[in-house]
Design goal:
Layout (H helix, E strand, L loop, with lengths): L3 E5 L10 E3 L13 E3 L9 E4 L2 E2 L5 H15 L7 E8 L4 H20 L2 E8 L2 H9 L6 E3 L3 H9 L15 E11 L20 E2 L7 H15 L11 H13 L1 E3 L4 H9 L5 E5 H9 L5 E3 L3 E11 L1 H7 L2 H12 L1 H9 L7 H6 L9 E3 L6 H10 L4 H14 L1
Parallel strand pairs: 1-7, 6-7, 6-8, 10-11, 10-12, 14-15
Antiparallel strand pairs: 1-4, 2-3, 4-5, 8-14, 9-12, 9-13, 9-14
Length: 399
């Protein structure tokens, strides 16, 4: 019986002409990290995984058989004893869903209903996933990095309920923005100001596709604006923007998602990586050597989850979808999130694991910068701070 089908989404961008720094091809990790034109990545063939194993290239006849197989395996069984649920998630919680929550929910659903549930789970950059769902990827549930990516789906008319009125304000997990460093922290990185050192090589994802990248940029700018970055006066937008410029000048690789960025870091590329705290904790869980620094002032990351009403009703999966959402919000599941480095949103679970996490000296939320609507407008819109700095640095590098 098929338990889970993982779908790796192709890379997408709303701006085909944009040039980003990209990791070297596999096997060329030692070469210089140059720029790659987005046009070469737009229509990359999707990589499909069946029961956790990659599907290789097939002939037209074999493809037809596979399509028939998918129709039988992934849809509701003819005997009515099987359900299918499609999950579109951002990259970093892959392990907690695929290794823990999905198998446990499948067991729970079988015990309570006598039915099997097959998951089609996909993991990609939060922004890319959001646009894919709007573009026709029929996910029943989206678990994304930040609220604006869920709002995009709602504005498209696919989420018809008030997803923020759900438990915990529509959030499913929390984390904080940290600096990943090599084991033993050989460069003695202590706080945000160290990231402006000339010659330092920094990894962070691309904010055009990654929610994690947007959290990173906001954390850098906000900490400086709050006067918590050494040498940067507080309450001075120009000084904060200049600090962000200095850090971005040191960014050598921008990947499409937070997971890809940290994978590059593990391969030996770069000196530090800006990332979610839970990404480092997951690496440590797998005995991969890595340390991290929690800056004096950092941003609380809050990750949303929502049911996509139009697709759920089209698939007839509302009952199993609602049950899955209730399940992942439970104390038991929230403790599982904690096992994989994410900070629980459910109060009972959060109280039980407080000793697992360090409390930043100055922890703040996105509301400090005016909330996501204002942040999108002032930081990431075409005339916002990040595109202006990015274009400025690109022009100076080409000059």
């Amino acid at each position: 019986m098929i338990k889970s089908i993982q779908i790796a989404m192709p890379y997408r961008s709303d701006l085909p002409g944009h040039r980003v720094k990209q990791r070297p091809p596999k096997g060329r990790e030692g070469v210089s990290e140059g720029t790659m034109n987005m046009d070469r990545l737009l229509f990359r063939r999707p990589r499909l995984r069946l029961c956790g194993r990659p599907l290789q290239a097939v002939s037209a006849g074999s493809l037809l058989l596979l399509l028939v197989f998918f129709a039988v395996a992934c849809g509701t069984g003819g005997d009515g004893q099987e359900d299918t649920l499609t999950l579109a998630a951002y990259t970093t919680p892959r392990e907690v869903y695929s290794q823990a929550l999905i198998p446990r929910f499948q067991e729970h659903w079988r015990e309570t209903t006598g039915r099997n549930v097959v998951f089609r789970d996909s993991y990609a950059g939060s922004g890319a996933q959001s646009r894919a769902v709007v573009g026709g990827f029929e996910a029943d549930v989206v678990a994304l990095s930040l609220a604006p990516d869920v709002d995009r789906i709602a504005r498209a008319g696919l989420i018809t309920h008030d997803w923020r009125a759900e438990a915990f304000g529509g959030m499913i997990s929390r984390s904080v923005v940290v600096i990943a460093v090599r084991e033993g922290n050989p460069l003695q990185i202590r706080d945000w100001d160290d990231l402006s050192r000339p010659g330092l090589k920094i990894l962070t994802p691309d904010p055009r596709t990654s929610g994690g990248a947007m959290w990173n940029i906001c954390a850098l700018y906000g900490a400086a604006l709050r006067g918590k970055v050494k040498g940067v006066p507080g309450d001075d937008p120009e000084a904060a923007a200049n600090f962000l410029r200095q850090v971005l000048r040191n960014v050598t690789v921008m990947d499409k998602g937070a997971r890809e960025s940290l994978t590059n870091f593990e391969r030996g590329i770069g000196d530090v990586a800006l990332t979610y705290e839970n990404e480092v904790l997951v690496a440590r869980r797998a005995d991969r050597p890595m340390d991290y620094v929690i800056p004096t002032s950092t941003l609380l990351i809050e990750n949303p989850i929502a049911m996509v009403d139009v697709y759920v009703d089209r698939h007839g999966t509302r009952q199993v979808t609602e049950a899955f959402l209730d399940f992942v919000r439970s104390t038991e599941s929230q403790l599982i999130f904690a096992d994989f480095g994410l900070r629980p949103v459910e109060p009972t679970a959060a109280a039980q694991v407080t000793d697992r996490y360090s409390t930043p000296e100055d922890l703040w939320t996105i509301e400090y910068l005016g909330g996501w609507d204002r942040v999108i407008e002032t930081m990431f819109a075409p005339e916002g701070l990040y595109p202006r700095l990015s274009e400025e640095l690109l022009t100076s590098n080409e000059g």
